[in-house]
Amino acid sequence: MAARFGDKGLAASALILALIGLLLLFLYAHSLEPKHLSISSLNQEQEGTYVEVMGMISGTSSRGGNVFLYLCDKSCITVFIPSSQTDDFDINPYLIKKGDGLIVRGTVEIYKGERELIPLGFDGLELV
């Protein structure tokens, strides 16, 4: 005789699966939060890591539409904004100037042996 899976069993199974799904979404969303690090602690081991750093702009430049921001705390890092992404942020990166405080959320990359930070998302750049 085949066991019947009643309405109560089906509802309980659906509830358990829904709770497992919510837990997995919570864990996934938590992994999307940037790691809060100092600029001096960024190294090749963090390449590809989503981080948040804060510092002061020591200089800016642009070439071919690309924007380069030089962000410093105790050490400095280049923040590279490709021309194709300059419109992707809440603030206009061309208007950031020396002396501005800035929070950058993005990924650490190594370019020609040097650390760079590539901002990501609408809130990738935040003046403070």
Structural write-up:
The chain is of the alpha+beta class. The chain folds into two domains: 1-32; 35-127, Beta Barrel (OB fold (Dihydrolipoamide Acetyltransferase, E2P)). It is 20% helix and 38% strand. It contains one helix and seven strands. The protein has one helix spanning 7-31; strands at residues 35-36, 50-63, 66-72, 76-81, 101-111, 114-119, 125-127. It has a five-stranded mixed beta barrel. The longest helix has 25 residues, at 7-31. The chain starts with 6 loop residues before the first helix and ends with a strand. The mean pLDDT is 89.
In short:
With 128 residues, the protein is an alpha+beta fold. 20% of the residues lie in helices and 38% in strands.
Write the layout of secondary structure elements.
Layout: H1 7-31, E1 35-36, E2 50-63, E3 66-72, E4 76-81, E5 101-111, E6 114-119, E7 125-127
Parallel strand pairs: 1-2, 4-6
Antiparallel strand pairs: 2-3, 2-5, 3-4, 5-6, 5-7
